[in-house]
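User: what does the whole thing look like in 3D?
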Amino acid sequence: MQHVPDLISIFFPPWKNWSFFWDLTVSGLTRGSIYALIALGYSMVYGILKLLNFAHGDVYMIGAFLGWFMLQWLGGPSDPFISGWFVVACMLLFAMLGCGVLGVGIERFAYRRLRDAPRIAPLISALGVSIILQSSAQILFGTGFRNYQTETLVGFSIHNVGDVFFSTVQLVTVLLAGALMVALTLFVARTRVGKAMRATSFDREAASMMGIDVDRVISVTFFIGSALAGAAGVMFGLVFGQIYNLMGFLAGLKGFTAAVIGGIGSIPGAMLGGIVLGLAESYATGYLPQGSTFHDLYVFLLLIIVLIVRPSGLLGTPAIQKV
Amino acid sequence: MKKLLVAVAALVGVAVAASVGSAGTARTAASSASAVTCGSSRTIGFLVPATGPAASIGQQQVRWAKFVVNQWNKTHKTAKIVISQQDTQLGAANGSAQALAGAQALKSNSKVLAVVGAAGSNENKGIRQTLKGAGFGWVTGSATADELTTTEAGTRGYFFRAVPPDSQQGTTVANLMIDKLKVSKVYIIDDEEAYSTGLADTVEAKLKAAGKSVTRDGVSQQESDFSALVAKIDRSTNVIYIPWQLSPKAAAFVSQLKQAGKGSIAVMGSDGLYADDFAAAGNPPTIYDSMFPVSPGQADVKAYEKAHGGNGDFFGAPTGVATQVVVQAIDRACKDGKATRAEVRAQIAKTNIPKSILGFTIKFTKNGELSGGKFGLYKSNGKIFLPISL
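Assistant: Here's the predicted 3D structure for the full assembly of 713 residues, as structure tokens:
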């Protein structure tokens, strides 16, 4: 026990007090909320098609750009035609709608004909779509960074509850992500389309024989998953300030990781995975040696440990093999 | 018998290795010595991050290089310059390999007489054997790592730069913090590239020598989410020093600093961040920057701004100077109608541009450093950087 004070001094040196812990927690929850929204798209598509849609991260990038264009159309951050928060709402709606349509188009164009092909074919097709989206963004939007100028648009009001400091934008991001996730859960649990999605996920052929329009269900799944990615893209731009054409790759990887940690195919799992990943990254950055540089190393070590202990993820159910 | 065979094999191996080595040397000499007919067009190589994470600064370099070449071509109809551009994708995962591939492409193009670039210090380390092997003289407009011009680098007479080195910039920055800002606690965050770590090392050493409290950290240029890093910065810190290369990243960092309620901490950047978006991110916080002193009143700078919608693209200005150096060296080497890479190299070393856009005479030392180069200090007024003095 004599080593306990030493360990405390390593992880909580004098200036790393509870305020520091809460700063990291706020940061982790904010980024975790964004990861969770991306992870939901991965998880929903995997749940229904058993497809790893690697273009999903780039849909998120397109969403961030759609939000930026809407911001410009509404007069820009310094002189918008309507109030700042209403502009944010319009940006979110436009990005969600645009990405939803894009997702449906991607499914129709790149995946539908490959549904019965060997599983490697749609995977390669997904990688191809990812590269097409990245390159198209470079051609259309250029390689430069775009800034949402959130401070100019809605301000950075800083609040504190005891030692917990957070901005309005961070609070809105976490609450909005939570609201979208709850809405999705209710949609899947309580609507006819949601029921059809669950049935299709359980057994596509049987669902089809029961009169469910599987094509429509898959299109709806892609629409919702992509719309959530679009919302995540706008939230990222609002919180972290900048967007660019290559931002989708790493975010997609993190979203996929979050989905795997939570249990790919599980909607609550995707949410939990996102939050866990965001917090783990944040704490790794803050507490572990050279965390700013090697947080990804620590996080992926965590991923490996989680998968060794629970191969199907935190909330995933083990696949039952019929013999 | 077995021993004899091993001995013979070893001898053959040594002989083959020696012949390969001498052939390499011979090839170097040949590529350097083979003369190109100058004719009405002369080719320069250009290694630049035209795409990838550093494309925003790379495009500034592209625009300045093209501007200088276009101006030259307008007045030299019979001795036009052609740019052979290779993308290095600085900062991308495959950036180093891409830079090397670009250098090899230039090496194999017999028309290329000299090279402008590469942009990054790490890139220059990776390609120097290839460029030297090809006999090129090359001039960078942004690689500032001190070790690029040391004797150990082995590129004396080949490598030149139109920017002062990190040690000079680092000393200027440290002096500002110690003498003018009277700091006691500084947080230094490098971007894990040679350019940035070199500068951070210099400033850290000088501050520590002056008895200041310094915390050192690093973050990849691929990151956009700095919130956890910001959480690590103590609220009683006086200055955060970020010698990075991508101004939009720095602007995002400042934005996240403000969101965390730490907008009262001053932020200091380096030449890579001398851009309006970084300047506009501040006030608060107070933002400082160090930069080679581009001369705004100079006719070429004004002409550039006029041609680019009022945008000076100042980070690219030294690349404009590097292009000017190479173009003029080729012109001098081509006086007899033919030129070799070695002749151009020798002419680069003899450069003397009295009124450069950097505001001082461009001459090189034997190591390839700018003779008399210096850094200026700037402070943001919330929109642009304005010069300050120590």
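In plain terms: The CA atoms of residues 44 and 138 of chain B lie 10 Å apart. The interface with chain A takes residues 51-53, 55-56, 59, 189, 192, 217-220, 222, 224-232, 234, 246, 248-249, 251-252, 255-256, 258-261, 277 of chain B (CB under 8 Å).
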